[in-house]
Amino acid sequence: MRVGLFVTCVNDLMYPRTGRAVVSILERIGVRVEFPEAQTCCGQVHGNSGHQRLAAPLRDRFGEVFAGFDAVVSPSGSCVAFLRERHGNVYELSEFLVDVLETEDVGGVFPHRVTYHPTCHGLRMLRLGDKPLRLLANVRGIELLPLEGAAECCGFGGTFAVKNTGVSSAMLEDKCAAVCDTGADFLAAADNSCLTHIGGGLSRRNGPKAIHYAEILAATKAGA
User: What pTM, to 2 d.p., does this model score?
Assistant: First the structure.
């Protein structure tokens, strides 16, 4: 199987550790991953803001860059949800691991208390269900803590947080309060865009550290 990594703009510019984590996970279980350097923005930001005409060429370019791959894996549920309408072989990481490779244990070691926020795109559009949690549950040393109101939106929603700052901030406060109440050391999620939003709120409370769940799966005892 020829597998490509679509790292996404946010991860490329701000969270390169997440992309490296995906590669580490897949190579650990015997999957060779390729990274096409010609990849660019998929157009999600434009499309979600109502600019479909501007988004179309970017989504088409994605298809050209990743032509010939049997599967494309990405650590971003929101980008995958946007691309899935045109490109059916694009998978969020947990989908690829659980549904395609049929594995729920990738050999991670992370001896910390963790709670998990299921982002809106992953929950409502991709319907990931408990796949990320099943993967996390097999990480050695981890203590998974339930998050009250986990399915509630964090208030990010891309440009929603910019255009509706008051509502967004109120939603963020509720989410951060719930996260802090868990007593966790880390908050995990499947989208670094949402984690940026929640992480900012948590940092102002000296709360748990925001982390992409791929980085937990990739961790070893020495690097935890």
Answer: 0.93
